[in-house]
Amino acid sequence: MFIPRINHFAMEFDWHQLTPYHLLATALVGLMAAWFVKHLMRLPKNLPPGPTGLPLLGVVSKFFGTSDPLALLSEWADMYGEITSFNIGTQLVVLLNAYEVVAEAFRHPDLQDRPRCRIKEEVSGCGRNAGLLIGVGQSWKEQRKFTLSVFRSLGVGKKSYEDTVAAEMTQLGRAIKEKKGSPFDPNILLGQAVANVICTIIFGTQYTYSDTEFQQGTKSSFSHHSLKSVIADLFFAGMETTTTTLKWFILYMMAYPEVQSRVQAELDHVVGRERLPGLSDGKNLPYTCAVIMEVQRKGAVVAMGVPHLASVDVTIRGYTIPKGTIIYPNIWKVMNSKNFWDDSDAFKPERFLSEDGKLTNRQELIYFSTGRRICPGEQLARMETFLGFTSLLHRFTFKKPDNSPPLSLDANLGGTRSSLPYMTCAIPRESTENLLD
Ligand code: HEM
């Protein structure tokens, strides 16, 4: 039945009408189909489950119709489980949707590379050794070790660095006070404070040439270029993330004034009105710390983490992750999944408190990722967040300006998951006038 029809078609078809373009197009389609079949045959059978996409395009089209890509990825996580895979174009992507699987994968030594970022490689002139954030292999290891040891020797994130960060937060408070309670967008002021802290790390201390750390640096993967790359990475990775975090804090406090009042009451009780809060107060401020954790959970500033790349074929949870696969930790899902978090959509700082009011940590709160590439700025960011949040709330009450549009807790998904622009009024609290300047 079918064969005679083809014969009939072949006889009826006017083959003289075929132009070279037709032939070329047919050859191209044939080649693409052959490539696609070969590509499919090469893929291992036990890839993590996931949505099927179109040949060559993968699931790209599914993102076109959605205004909330995180919700779509979250749906896939609910449908396919803790580890899912799909193609974006011809690139295989694996998504890790649960804490245990992120922890297992990101501990694995062969899942620590980064996808290539040609622009950064070109700009830095260092190729694949371009700094810490996208560096791979031995040079990444050396640059990470170097950065962490510089942080350690400066006491970054430790008690000895507290004064530097606290001084910056006092300066921030002063600038906010100058607004005299009138509406302002906190973005620029917060950004300046965060940038200044990173500046003190990078430019505030001089190494001597005899310093062993410095000498090791010059022998190995370190060049003038790669050092510049690391510095650029610290600004890039540390600026927007921390500023965005502080912006979420102010926004959530405006949206939940009763939470703001309770934090202020705890600060007044523990710290008193004679001084600003310090790091050592943290252990006596369980509610305040729970609020910080809940804003981190809801804010999920680096919602999809920073992608890793499989350097060889790796098996995780019985699934093969082939060499060259890009792996994303779905940090937002891990911190917001209905399976792990009771009433996950709600803003409920109490979820981090035990019945007797003690702070309880949750391993699923992977705000800074986890494993071998975990954020090296974590301690610094934690210090800035704690000192920034507590000192601002000790001095001011943040209020939505009258006649301003309703507050939105929706997010913009760009480099970070950030709040939509907003204005705030910082009303100085009583009895802070002379005591805290
Ligand atoms: C609230 C603020 C911050 C958040 C939420 C955050 C989050 C993250 C996350 C999720 C990663 C990816 C880890 C991975 O690949 O698995 C990362 C990497 C990184 N972060 Fe942060 N970060 C913050 C602040 C900072 C600060 C203050 C610095 C430095 C001053 C910094 C420097 C870096 C660097 C250099 C990397 C790359 C590490 C590597 O590839 O080995 N971050 N951060």
Automatic annotation (TrEMBL):
Segments crossing the lipid bilayer: 20-37
InterPro entries the record matches: Cyt_P450, Cyt_P450_CS, Cyt_P450_E_grp-I, Cyt_P450_sf, Cytochrome_P450_fam2
Cofactor: heme
Domain of life of the organism encoding this protein: Eukaryota
One GO molecular-function entry: oxidoreductase activity, acting on paired donors, with incorporation or reduction of molecular oxygen
Keywords, ordered alphabetically: Heme, Iron, Membrane, Metal-binding, Monooxygenase, Oxidoreductase, Transmembrane, Transmembrane helix
Keyword Nucleotidyltransferase applies: no
Protein residues bound to heme: 375
Family: Belongs to the cytochrome P450 family.
Protein name (record): Uncharacterized protein
